[in-house]
């Protein structure tokens, strides 16, 4: 039975290299010619970058082929892999719907088309043979105009059957010049009763305390325990959860080794701040959630008790998980009922 929850996975970075390369070979002659051999493509797609901005440029490669027509193709394979290879019971997919609309359209037409994109992603995520609870987080973007970002918030409010929260993405260094604008958008989102998370305190350039009061979860947030541990007490009081994505920090050049995260986990546990371990961009990293767990354990960043606490926290802070308990607890209850029934049947047979 699936046991895990991933609260931070980008639709653009979720496509594993092999599936993306095969799509290029079959449907995109230009990209197929650029990467004729799979090994060459995998090396390019998954290698470490020097900065977060350089890393985020890879999203444009995938966004260009995630259209109305192709999204079901990619999402089916995403859900299948998440269920079979990662044991996921719950998955929140985040993306900017505007970036999946047609560039041939006007801004107004692209805003109108966003509703169709959300519907396609929502319906394609419901795969009967792979029963995962899924929901969407719609991302505002640091490089999109205010009108588009506000439309994304409004869309999230209008489509709650598919959408569980909003986010802001696009590189945290780019928020600074528009900080008041994003504060206003988050304030507006909270007034609509929307759940909120946001890419914040991921890098040393993305530390904006002005946004913290509007977030229910913090996307990454590793610079808080590393550089601003005095904030942890308030984060614990507000029951804000950090979405830690270990491999990302190596791929973006933010950290030199996973072991640097030990300080993050230790300080958060000491302060009573919850952490959910996530994948961020499982395809770009070619690393699935159980391997994130294993890497943290084998490199002595966390122990098994801390891992279980993080897994519990992921379900506790999941915006759209419909049950009061995580799947392992539910399964134990079912097994206990089965054992009790077997014992009763045995007594009746005597």
TrEMBL record:
GO terms for molecular function: adenosine deaminase activity; metal ion binding. Its cofactor is Zn(2+). Keywords: Hydrolase, Metal-binding, Zinc. Signal peptide: none annotated. SUPFAM superfamilies: Metallo-dependent hydrolases (SSF51556). Transmembrane segments: none annotated. GO terms for cellular component: cytosol. The keyword Lipid metabolism does not apply. The keyword Zinc applies. It holds the Pfam family A_deaminase. Its EC number is 3.5.4.4. Residues 5-320 form the Adenosine deaminase domain. One of its GO terms (biological process) is adenosine catabolic process. It comes from the Bacteria. Belongs to the metallo-dependent hydrolases superfamily. Adenosine and AMP deaminases family. This is adenosine deaminase. It comes from Hydrococcus rivularis NIES-593.
